[in-house]
Amino acid sequence: xxxxxxxxxxxxxxxxxxxxxxxxxxxxxxxxxxxxxxxxxxxxxxxxxxxxxxxxxxxxxxxxxxxxxxxxxxxxxxxxxxxxxxxxxxxxxxxxxxxxxxxxxxxxxxxxxxxxxxxxxxxxxxxxxxxxxxxxxxxxxxxxxxxxxxxxxxxxxxxxxxxxxxxxxxxxxxxxxxxxxxxxxxxxx
Length: 189
Prior knowledge:
Helices cover about 30% and strands about 25% of the residues. By secondary structure, the chain is α+β, with helices and mostly antiparallel strands.
């Protein structure tokens, strides 16, 4: 009798437990995330003073504290400008990582990424500003020509479900992007 019970328990552990673990991993890793393709109006911004409305120095200190940055317009005018996004993250462009098409197109970058810049080994999502009523923080989007990004910021002019703003490191890259209507793949959290 004990051997029959023991065999039944081992059979359950051998077959049922791995199936439960696989189902749990599917939900935890995000394989069951909902994706949606939508055409959006996509603009660009950078961290410069003309895109983000900040100025160096305060008239309170006769602009002698030029190393400090202050908000130059809006309800927070005169407050210290940290350069952080609304979610508290530092804005950045997407990084493709080592195992990407960029490594195939530019193989000379592989030694640079592995030895000199090891933080470029892992792909990183870029920063997207969107209306958080429609796209909450953490919503991932794939924009052709830009790559994967995550909603980490809000914009003053970014209103509605059909408009997003992409972060670029340089002002010239943001101006080159301009304003486009692009089909975006949206992955909800």
